[in-house]
């Protein structure tokens, strides 16, 4: 698709620092809240909270099955439920949702804490760490591997293949993405074969649940879609904790009083994580495609044009969140943030993501007297938003 319109903003800025994207989005909300960019093959960006909610609510007009992120990164097949629209995606969400309720996730806390403690011990002994790459990346890989019941050999493969895929996506090189995605498919294929040969309790094991699921007509889910779904689940939760934890430690290095308060009052950590999710939403947003011509914010969006729903901007919309750039532990309307989306595609793993972030911050604070950032963070490009690498000096208790 070719476009002859001028860009309203530059979506590719190699000089981006920790705060520059938020400055850009604040400017767009004021000047051009529904903005066009010719970058990434051309896309619209919705930057206001109300417009993003409109698109999330109207699943008949704004579909995810064509393109779910900007830039488009799916080259190795459709993977439910993220790549499907209602009602087709409903059967796949019906498998995942019961396995990821807040009650089911709470049972995983001891396991998550044990992984966090094991990862942190050598980092604190060393006194320095890349907190993103050495802590916030391996932790969710290990958590997802154990939640999925991967044998030790496959968990070791995922520990390599998962971050390799994420780095390939970060590079923007579609040719580099394909082999890393196929490596994840191979892990998924082996896991599916294991469960076909020896099923586990479908009420506990995600892959067994997918194999046991039946559609309304009584037929099983298609084999290729089960494979795609396992592949999606294996890696979907790896990136957000990495960039979120990086953003959190940068903020707390800047605000030493808040760092000290959270260390002294760990009961405040869950509320702090919720405000951090609003303030530093780890995904700029997911994408939709217009099935018909629509008008938003005085702009006409043509049929089939991709639209980025910029959660990170919506969560700092001044009309919804007063003093949006300020951390407020007791923000009255915090539940209005959309870091995990809304509607049918609300993040299935939201409870698990929250638990991982709470445990990571809680354990880091409990095991240090203080910490501070060293050097310049390495920022992630689209679609994530936040640091991919943060050097941290750790002062033990």
What does this protein structure show overall?
This protein has 397 residues and is α+β, with helices and mostly antiparallel strands. Helices cover 48% and strands 12% of the residues. Helix 7 crosses helix 8.
List the helices and strands and how they pair.
Blueprint: H1 20-31, E1 34-37, E2 43-46, H2 49-57, E3 62-63, H3 90-96, H4 102-106, H5 109-126, E4 128-130, H6 131-136, H7 138-147, H8 152-171, H9 174-197, H10 206-212, H11 223-236, H12 239-254, H13 256-264, H14 269-279, E5 287-290, E6 294-296, E7 299-301, E8 306-309, H15 311-314, H16 350-366, E9 368-379, E10 387-396
Parallel strand pairs: 2-8
Antiparallel strand pairs: 1-2, 3-5, 4-10, 5-8, 6-7, 9-10
Key descriptive features of the protein:
16 helices; five-stranded mixed sheet; three-stranded antiparallel sheet; 10 strands; 397 residues
Tell me briefly what this model is:
This protein is α+β, with helices and mostly antiparallel strands. It is 48% helix and 12% strand.
Q: Give the topology string: H per helix, E per strand.
A: HEEHEHHHEHHHHHHHHHEEEEHHEE
Tell how many strands the DSSP assignment holds. 10
> Which ranges are low-confidence, i.e. pLDDT below 50, for 5 or more consecutive residues?
none
Average pLDDT value?
Answer: 93
Please give the share of residues in helix: 40-55%
Q: Note the main sheet.
A: 5 strands, mixed
Radius of gyration: 21 Å
- State the secondary-structure class: alpha+beta
Distance between the termini: 57 Å
Strand order in the largest sheet: 1-2-8-5-3
Portion of residues in beta strands equals: 5-15%
Number of helices: 16
């Amino acid at each position: 698709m070719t476009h002859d319109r001028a860009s309203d903003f530059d979506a590719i800025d190699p000089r981006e620092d920790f705060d520059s994207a938020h400055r850009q989005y604040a400017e767009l909300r004021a000047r051009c809240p529904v903005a066009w960019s010719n970058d990434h093959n051309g896309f619209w960006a919705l930057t206001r909270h109300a417009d993003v909610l409109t698109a999330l609510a109207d699943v008949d007009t704004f579909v995810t099955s064509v393109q779910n992120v900007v830039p488009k990164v799916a080259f190795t097949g459709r993977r439910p439920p993220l790549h499907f629209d209602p009602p087709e995606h409903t059967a796949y969400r019906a498998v995942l949702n019961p396995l990821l309720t807040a009650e089911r996730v709470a049972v995983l806390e001891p396991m998550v804490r044990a992984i966090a403690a094991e990862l942190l011990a050598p980092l604190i002994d060393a006194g320095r760490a890349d907190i993103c790459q050495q802590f916030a990346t391996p932790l969710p890989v290990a958590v997802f591997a154990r939640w999925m019941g991967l044998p030790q050999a496959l968990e070791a493969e995922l520990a390599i293949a998962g971050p390799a895929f994420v780095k390939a996506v970060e590079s923007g090189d579609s040719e580099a993405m394909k082999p890393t995605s196929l490596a994840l498919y191979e892990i998924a294929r082996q896991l599916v074969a294991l469960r076909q040969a020896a099923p586990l309790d479908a009420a506990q094991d995600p892959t067994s649940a997918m194999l046991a699921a039946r559609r309304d007509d009584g037929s099983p889910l298609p084999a290729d879609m089960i494979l795609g779904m396992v592949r999606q689940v294996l890696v979907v939760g790896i990136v957000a904790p990495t960039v979120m934890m990086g953003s959190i430690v940068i903020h707390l290095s800047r605000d030493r009083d808040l760092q000290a308060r959270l260390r002294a009052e760990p009961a405040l950590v869950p509320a702090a994580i919720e405000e951090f999710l609003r303030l530093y939403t780890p995904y700029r947003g997911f994408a939709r495609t217009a099935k018909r011509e629509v008008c938003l914010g005085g702009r006409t969006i043509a049929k089939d044009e991709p639209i980025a729903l910029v959660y990170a901007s919506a969560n700092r919309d001044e009309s919804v969140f007063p003093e949006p750039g300020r951390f407020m532990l007791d923000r009255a309307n915090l539940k209005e943030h959309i870091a995990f989306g809304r509607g049918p595609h609300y993040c299935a793993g939201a409870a698990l993501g929250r638990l991982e972030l709470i445990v990571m911050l809680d354990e880091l604070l409990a095991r240090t007297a203080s910490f501070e950032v060293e050097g310049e963070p390495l920022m992630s490009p689209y679609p994530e938003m936040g640091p991919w690498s943060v050097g941290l000096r750790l002062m033990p208790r």
